[in-house]
Amino acid sequence: MNYQQAGEQLRAHQAEILALRQKIRDIQAERQPEPVGRYVFQGPEGEVALADLFGDRETLFIVHNMGRGCVYCTLWADGLNGLVDHLENAAAFVVTSPDTPEVQQAFSAERGWRFRMLSHSGTTFAEDMGYVRDGGQFPGLSVFRKNADGDVVRVGDTEFGPGDDYCAIWHMLDLAPGTGTWSPRYSYH
Question: Could you tell me the fold of the domain covering 34-174?
Fold first, then answer.
């Protein structure tokens, strides 16, 4: 198939994807909020309650990161670091992992991350949110809203994985034949 013909087919499929994304947004808008427990995380300054992570915001994004030992989670965090100002303009934003606050702070400094990190170690938070299953952890994102009465509900969530919509590199690599075996590393030097 020549380049132009392929382009026409790709544009048709991209239109289908846009239509599916609208269906996803519509279902998400109809999803009933899920009440969540009162979790307490560990940070560099001590304990922080889930309800306190909102600050003056109504909405909170929490990234479920598997920690320093996951090169893929590092890739997502590197990308989110570039979006943190934009995200925090819309909502509160926190990255959680099972690593200790000390490990998180050292790794964050090494990577140049600017977002807030908290440890969910010793809690059932990741498991209760569905990001620990069958003895393994999974990366993803949960979105919470704090009601007027102070109760917190989850209004959305999604898993992260190679090829997802939350890391731009996958879609860029899709345009370059021969890069399908690429995988991230902590450093390329």
Answer: Glutaredoxin (3.40.30)
Query: Which residues fall within 8 angstroms of residue 107, CB to CB, at 6 or more apart?
Result: 68, 99, 113
Q: Please list the alpha-helical segments (H only) found in the chain.
A: 3-30, 71-90, 101-111, 125-128, 168-174
Residue 66 contacts residue 97 (beta carbons within 8 Å): yes
In the DSSP assignment, the letter for residue 32 is P
Quote the strand ranges of 4-89, DSSP E. Answer: 34-35, 40-43, 46-49, 59-64
Q: What is the pTM of this model?
A: 0.92
Domain-wise residue ranges, the chain: 34-174
Rounded to whole angstroms, how far apart are CA atoms 147 and 142?
Answer: 16
Residue length of the chain: 189
Find out whether 114 and 136 touch, Cβ atoms under 8 Å: no
User: What are 51-62's pLDDT values in tens digits?
Assistant: 999 999 999 999
